[in-house]
Design a protein that fits this description.
three-stranded parallel sheet, globular, mainly alpha, 2 domains, 7% strand, Rossmann fold, Tyrosyl-Transfer RNA Synthetase, 327 residues, 13 helices, binds tryptophanyl-5'AMP
Length: 327
Amino acid sequence: MKRMVSGIKPTGSLTLGNYIGALRNFVRYQDDYEMIVFIANLHCITEYQDPAQLSKNLKDAVALYIACGLDPKKSTIFLQTDVPAHATLGYILSCYTYMGELNRMTQFKDRMAKNEGNISAGMYTYPCLMAADILLYNPDYVPVGDDQKQHVELTRDIAARFNNKYTETFKMPEPLVQKVGARIMSLSDPSKKMSKSDETNKGCIYLLDDLKAARKKIMSAVTDSVGAVQLDKVNQPGLYNLIEIASSLSGRSMEEIAEEFKDQGYGSLKRYVADVVCAELEKIQKRYQEVLDSGILEEVMAEGAKKAAVIADATVADVKKKIGLQF
Ligand code: TYM
């Protein structure tokens, strides 16, 4: 069975973007692949997080993983810090990554362009930790949204460099990015990615959003003045995004949805998108409450970490030996 590895960084509550671009695909793949999915808690602290809030977000994220359909019997689910090999290999790989490569990472470049002060060293080197998250498990594929593809490509470069310097150690992982739903945009500004750190809270749908609030965000989504429902990503990016969301969740093609609403107003399309999104959220939220009430989270996490550590520790042992870090 081929193996997949992926993770989500719950710096806030999980979003519809996380669900469509990543989480829901993990669920789909778990029957046909060996799925290893973790909560990337070390990645959260590249920026200050309120400790109580962070802790709550981590628990919510695990509960949401399961509520969205990840089955702990099929998938290995764990908290990154419960497998210390992540931090160990993360540091080691930072010694095989060039600053020039990190300088080219879009996320870092964007922050620099905004002239943000006090970017932490952890934020700068975070792609090395992400490379470790992946390479520890020698996966075949890494299912991610479009914004993470660059990090998986860097991971491949680091892996190749290490393999060339020593001997074949890491398998080359392939990023797996969906054709539809790989980059869900903000509802209030369709030129930006839908993101957990949405300042206005109008552009982002959270999986735990109150259904009325979610519906309102969709109904007030920014569109355009063209006045016709059609698929035009360049001139009608807001509308395109709404259709992409509905297509991802309903399984209908974007063309089919655009065709159905072509003679109707934007309001009708928005109502349809809101119905589709709210039905999905309702299902997830019901299950989320059941998961929390069941009290299974600690056990699932402990079991997952144990299974993951067996693979991760063996990789670190191999890497240490190859580098000459032990005698
Ligand atoms: P993060 O937490 O920002 O996002 C988690 C996953 O959700 C996808 N995603 C989206 N997809 C479509 N539209 C959006 N608006 C959207 N927003 C987020 C992301 O592409 C990602 O797949 N560094 C990673 C977490 C990570 C990781 C890893 C992932 C750490 N180690 C190893 C894979 C493998 C991150 O910050 O993702």
